From TrEMBL:
<dbReference type="InterPro" id="IPR036134">
    <property type="entry name" value="Crypto/Photolyase_FAD-like_sf"/>
</dbReference>
<comment type="similarity">
    <text>Belongs to the DNA photolyase family.</text>
</comment>
<keyword id="KW-0157">Chromophore</keyword>
<dbReference type="InterPro" id="IPR036155">
    <property type="entry name" value="Crypto/Photolyase_N_sf"/>
</dbReference>
<dbReference type="InterPro" id="IPR006050">
    <property type="entry name" value="DNA_photolyase_N"/>
</dbReference>
<dbReference type="Pfam" id="PF03441">
    <property type="entry name" value="FAD_binding_7"/>
</dbReference>
<dbReference type="InterPro" id="IPR018394">
    <property type="entry name" value="DNA_photolyase_1_CS_C"/>
</dbReference>
<dbReference type="InterPro" id="IPR002081">
    <property type="entry name" value="Cryptochrome/DNA_photolyase_1"/>
</dbReference>
<dbReference type="Pfam" id="PF00875">
    <property type="entry name" value="DNA_photolyase"/>
</dbReference>
<keyword id="KW-0274">FAD</keyword>
<feature type="domain" description="Photolyase/cryptochrome alpha/beta">
    <location>
        <begin position="2"/>
        <end position="119"/>
    </location>
</feature>
<keyword id="KW-0456">Lyase</keyword>
<dbReference type="InterPro" id="IPR005101">
    <property type="entry name" value="Cryptochr/Photolyase_FAD-bd"/>
</dbReference>
<dbReference type="InterPro" id="IPR014729">
    <property type="entry name" value="Rossmann-like_a/b/a_fold"/>
</dbReference>
<dbReference type="GO" id="GO:0003904">
    <property type="term" value="F:deoxyribodipyrimidine photo-lyase activity"/>
</dbReference>
<protein>
    <submittedName>
        <fullName>Cryptochrome/photolyase family protein</fullName>
        <ecNumber>4.1.99.3</ecNumber>
    </submittedName>
</protein>
<keyword id="KW-0285">Flavoprotein</keyword>
Length: 445
């Protein structure tokens, strides 16, 4: 019986993996394959690469040291490996991103590519309006998403199949994560983190999810990014839980599916305004704009919550959702710089960097995306800090210069700025009016 290949991509796990069921059904031995593809590695900074390598090492362990890792263009190396071992099928979870779709079409011309399942609870393209069209507003999408439902978790483990030893001449060693990696990687860590969150913080998630100081969100985004856990595994645990915490969490998982659906229907929106009226938006450029950009990147804008967020990003490769919205709004509406610059910077530094959620999170904030936030909504970085970090703990955690300032005064700095902490690089009141004027020009056409 010919062997088959399970080509791992965004599904770096063995539990609840329908591709394993499909590969096992063929009855032959299975080679577990991962391709280090420079086209996907290039936009990642060192932190996300480290998480990937650590995750691959964990998967290799699950497979008893039998994960075959090769480097190169998958269009070339996947057919090459298939030929080398005489595989008659290559099993994958479907990829709906613009790059992944093109890549898979090319590979499918060379090998029998069998797509089973996807990284989403409900795959892109499945939730449609009555007339068959796609949604551009989340709330009605969410209603249909709930009605559509999702599979029950698949009953798979590494022992579902007989793994082939990857004794291939082209195999490359798995790069080991460096000592700086603070992330517990892999599917066991993902399940442990989920269980911890489910048992401790889920019940009050609705009340605490907007509070960066409490750090009470799941932090599952990194595990979801690499598919160390499938969302349906979590959704199964939420079944029969109509209370506010689980309901709010279910809704957030639906946002992830929604943005993947939007990107599927509009692949151009990864780079361009979803709403083409925004193509006429005026942005700042020149030396002052570059100085402002550098201050934003380094967390030295003089606005404490913005600086705390940007420093958390550099230190942890992660940022709380509320703070992502605040820093994104500041870049676009206070500094008048284009959303795609911020999005690219996030994709470089975030360990959960996900094209669909990131580009559309940015476009939502800029007002050019789906569910467009009303253009007149310009986040005030001081009152956002007072509201969502009411005792100032989040700011003090990430901005050491401000640690001696007690309570919420850390947001207003009423008694002056400590030595070494910058003055505000812009006046929020002035820039808010400027942003409104520019949005007004778009509205008038
Ligand atoms: P939780 O609050 O515990 O939520 C659980 C899960 O729901 C998350 O892991 C995520 O998969 C999903 N989710 C929650 N909120 C959103 C949302 N607004 N959009 C899409 N999915 C959501 N998320 C990413 O995974 N990758 C990104 O690159 C990314 N970039 C973003 C950029 C901006 C400007 C904004 C405003 C949001 C971005 N998000 C991104 C969404 C959100 O900030 C993160 O998913 C969330 O902060 C991850 O932390 P968590 O796992 O603790 O979230």
């Amino acid at each position: 019986m010919s062997p088959a290949i399970v080509w791992f991509r965004r599904d770096l796990r063995t539990r609840d993996l329908p591709t394993l069921t499909a590969a096992a059904a063929a009855g032959g031995a299975v080679l577990g394959l991962f391709v280090l593809d420079e086209a996907l590695l290039r936009p990642s900074g060192p932190a996300r690469r480290e998480v990937l390598y650590a995750t691959l090492a964990a998967l290799d362990e699950e497979l008893g040291g039998r994960l075959c890792v090769v480097r190169g263009d998958p269009r070339v190396v996947v057919p090459q490996v298939a030929k080398e071992i005489g595989a008659d099928a290559v099993h994958v979870s479907a990829d709906f991103g613009p790059y992944g779709r093109d890549r898979d079409e090319a590979v499918a011309r060379e090998v029998d590519l069998v797509r089973t399942g996807s990284p989403y609870a409900v795959a892109p393209g499945r939730v449609t309006k009555a007339d068959g069209g796609s949604y551009r507003v989340f709330t009605p999408y969410f209603g249909r998403w709930l009605d559509h439902g999702w599979r029950v978790p698949a009953d798979t483990t590494a022992s579902t199949v007989a793994w082939l030893d990857p004794a291939l001449p082209i195999r490359v060693p798995i790069p080991r994560a460096g000592s700086t990696s603070r992330w517990e990687a892999g599917e066991r860590a993902a399940l442990a983190r989920w269980t911890e969150f489910r048992d401790n913080d889920l019940a009050h998630y609705d009340a605490t999810r907007d509070r960066p100081d409490l750090d009470a969100t799941s932090r599952m985004s990194v595990y979801l990014k690499y598919g160390c856990i499938h969302p349906r595994t979590m959704l199964a645990d939420l079944a029969g839980r109509p209370d506010a915490g689980p309901a709010a969490f279910r809704r957030q998982l639906a946002w992830r599916d929604f943005y993947a659906d939007v990107l599927h229907h509009r692949p151009d929106s990864a780079r361009r305004n979803y709403d083409p009226r925004f193509d006429a938006m005026r942005y700042d450029s020149g030396p002052d704009a570059e100085t402002a950009w550098s201050a934003w990147c380094a967390g030295r804008t003089g606005y404490p919550i913005v600086d705390a967020g940007m420093r958390q990003l550099l230190a942890e490769g992660w940022m709380h959702n509320r703070v992502r919205m605040i820093v994104a709004s500041f870049l676009v509406k206070d500094l008048h710089l284009p959303w795609w610059r911020g999005a690219r910077y996030f994709m470089r530094h975030l360990i959960d960097g996900d094209l669909a959620s990131n580009q559309h999170g940015w476009q939502w904030t800029a007002g050019s995306g789906t569910d467009a936030a009303p253009y007149f909504r310009v986040f005030n970085p001081i009152s956002q800090g007072q509201k969502f970090d009411p005792d100032g703990d989040y700011v003090r955690r990430w901005v050491p210069e401000l640690r001696a300032i007690a309570g919420a005064r850390v947001h207003t700095l009423d008694d002056g700025r400590p030595l070494g902490y910058p003055d505000p690089i812009v006046d929020h009141g002035v820039e808010r009016m400027e942003a409104l004027a520019r949005y007004g020009e778009l509205k008038r056409g």
